[in-house]
Write a structure and sequence with these properties.
Length: 199
Amino acid sequence: MAARSSDLQEFLDRLREAFASANSQPPVSSVVAALYHAVEQPTMAGTPPPGALPVCGYLPTALGIARSSSRHLARLATAFEALEPRLAWMVRPSGGPFASANWQGGHANATIIGPERGLETRDDIVIGVSLLAPHVRYPDHRHPPEEVYLLLTPGRFQHGESGWFEPGAGGTLHNEPNIKHAMASQDDPLLAIWCLLLK
């Protein structure tokens, strides 16, 4: 069986703890249960070329907000900080409707586990992270896999025809397959973990 690095396992344990402490709706809990059933079996370690982007300069601020929010988020922030230097941060390759003018240089995404550029290579799930600088509006987008988010900092979200809503630091949300959705930061950077079920 493949071995999983200790920092990745610690991150997964703390993420699970943070999801468990959130007052999540049943669809979130269902996806999280499927996610953790999958990760019981480690797969091959990935070897992405690590690299930060200028927007990553907001990470210390975002992690500080998480640490001041709750004990569970503080533990998750510490676990994420330990593995973050190994992540390959990237910008979204294509835009979309309603993105703010500063979107391209004001965001970064990284895969933690998944088919490409992850610290563990898998084809059944993706766990990733998004960072937005203050006052950035991510473009509307959609994708077939079902998705859940866990927020380490406050931010605004929209899905389907809903208005904007704010789950708050430690909050969760669920995106149905192919539903249009978007996110936006406010005065502080937005840092969020997202998880996709591919199978």
